[in-house]
Amino acid sequence: MPDTRNSPKDLGASDAAIAHVAMLYYREGLNQGDIAQRVGVSRATIVNWLKHAREKGIVEIRVRGESFVASSLAKQVTKRFGLADTYISRDDINPLGREELRNRTATLAAQAMLDLLTDDDSLGVDWGETVLDVAKSFPRCQMPSILVQQLVGSVYSRHFFASETCAIEIARHIGARCRTLHAPVMLSSPDLAERLRHEPVIAAQLREIASLSKALFSVGGVSDETTIISAGVATAEDVAWYRDRGAAAVLACRFIDHNGDAMDGPLSDRIIGASPETLRSIPTRMLVASGIEKADAIRALLKGGYVSHLVVDELTAQKLIDQ
Length: 323
What we know:
The structure is a single chain. By secondary structure, the chain is an alpha/beta fold. The chain has helices spanning 8-11, 15-26, 32-39, 43-55, 72-81, 98-116, 129-137, 164-174, 190-197, 200-210, 227-230, 236-244, 276-281, 295-303, 314-322; strands at residues 85-89, 122-125, 147-150, 177-179, 214-217, 247-251, 254-257, 284-289, 309-313. It is built from 15 helices and nine strands. The strands form two sheets. It has a seven-stranded parallel beta sheet with strand order 1-9-8-5-2-3-4, sandwiched between helices. A two-stranded antiparallel sheet has the order 6-7. Mean pLDDT is 89; it is low at 1-9.
């Protein structure tokens, strides 16, 4: 059984030696047995060293996101909805489970967004399970000129992760600066929310959000299983109120109707974070979503002009075209 300990000392090699082995394997194409003979260790040790190289970022394996925009289905979606690009993650012969499909789509989104980032970009990051999967999938690199900005205020729940986690995780992976939003996402009253928006620190952060160059977000549905209910941001009764009046999607804790229009309602003036109008004004806007149950919500955001780049799974992309 391969050694599973993590430090180079425990592995019996320096990072430089492990990097040499990775070079032989990934660049020169030698198999693990040949490398073991060259280096003078067992094949099991080589397997463990290569695993360590991937986990610690000594070697980075990337499939460029731009490679996924060339399929005929991706081109159809792009043309149909007037997008800059569509990235489609393919399913297997045996359909993936919901979580596996989300992880695969999120991994593609991480690669695609990394390809789009340039020096001095400012990236706004939403929250949710899909966005957290994207954040965890970001390849490790150093982009210190990038600023990562939290798009919505803090979410506190004993059963859910904090909303700032997504922005922090991306910044950590790419060596970027990070700014979190120092306020709850949902306040108890419109008056309190309005006063907080005028606090100098929060007002400055909201102005920065309005000048972002790129944004990364997912979309929620309006069923009783939607994330804003499970995270405690809204109640089932709140969501039902919007759903009964035509809501189709949740974007950064705001409700969007089937025509793509932002909806007013009992929660609208209590939220701290990027407004739908602000998000729509950001030049590059990447929506990441998977599962055919999200098709109506995705379509609402596409109609509303909130999306420039779409990352979606194959079956959902086909449903967007068919309807």
